[in-house]
Task: structure prediction
Amino acid sequence: MFQSKRSKLIIGIILDLIGIASVPLGFTEILDLGWAPIAGYLMTRLYPGKSGVTAGVLTTIEELMPGMDVIPSFTIMWCYTYLIKSGKVKEENVIDVDHS
Result:
């Protein structure tokens, strides 16, 4: 759906802001009933594979739980994908050679 890291980050921040936007309106739980499945689906589209499905389920649950709207799920997933997970792959591909 979205290819570049930058576009995923921008879209993720916008989606997080949409999720948080229901908080000041005062009737968050009613809005979250509609937003939760949409947010979960969009997460799986942004991040395909097992990680995306897991994040989609967690995002849906997070949006349905009272008071949890402020968690930036999409931004956290972007950080996991491009900062944490990609760092692990780089570390695993490095061959440690002892030159003693």
